[in-house]
Inverse folding.
């Protein structure tokens, strides 16, 4: 059970990082399978970030290119509290990757301050 909680927190932290990345391009026509793959690649690229390791160049690149709509749909009301608990850290990671974060940006069930 404890391992599952860590995996959930890791996934949520990475999801919030991409949601706040400031990349608002929408790729029309992505299938659910393609969105799943976008999220999988991002999580794989940014896993060390969960352990407070600075983001790698590849992680930052994935933050910039992953389709925002694919990620925001995964931020449901059920996981929003986990996201909010890690929001300050996630905002810092996004900034270190050179992205601007708009105030009051809504991504799934969360809104930036």
């Amino acid at each position: 059970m404890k391992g599952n909680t860590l995996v959930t927190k890791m996934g949520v932290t990475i999801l919030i990082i991409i949601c706040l990345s400031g990349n608002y391009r929408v790729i029309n026509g992505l299938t659910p399978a393609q969105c799943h793959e976008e999220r999988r690649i991002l999580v794989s690229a940014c896993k060390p970030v969960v352990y407070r390791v600075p983001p790698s160049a590849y992680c930052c690149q994935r933050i910039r290119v992953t389709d925002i709509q694919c990620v925001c749909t995964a931020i449901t009301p059920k996981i929003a509290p986990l996201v909010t608990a890690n929001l300050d850290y996630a905002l810092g990671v996004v900034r270190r990757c050179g992205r601007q974060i708009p105030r009051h940006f809504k991504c799934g069930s969360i809104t930036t301050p």
Q: What stands out?
A: Residues 22-27 have pLDDT under 50 and may be disordered. The helical segments are 2-19, 32-46, 57-65, 68-72, 80-85, 87-96. The first strand starts at residue 106 and ends at 107. Residues 26 and 70 are 9 Å apart (CA to CA).
